[in-house]
Amino acid sequence: MSIAFEGALWPHAEALTLAAILIAACVTDLRTRRIPNGLVLTGLLAGMSFALMDGGAGGLLRATEGAATGLLIWLPFWLLHMMGGGDVKLFAAGAAWLGPSGAVEAAMLAGLCGGVLSLLYVLNRYGLTHTMFRLAYGMQHPTLLREAAPAEWNRRMPYALAMAAGLAGAAYWPGLLL
Question: What is the pTM of this model?
Answer without folding.
Answer: 0.83
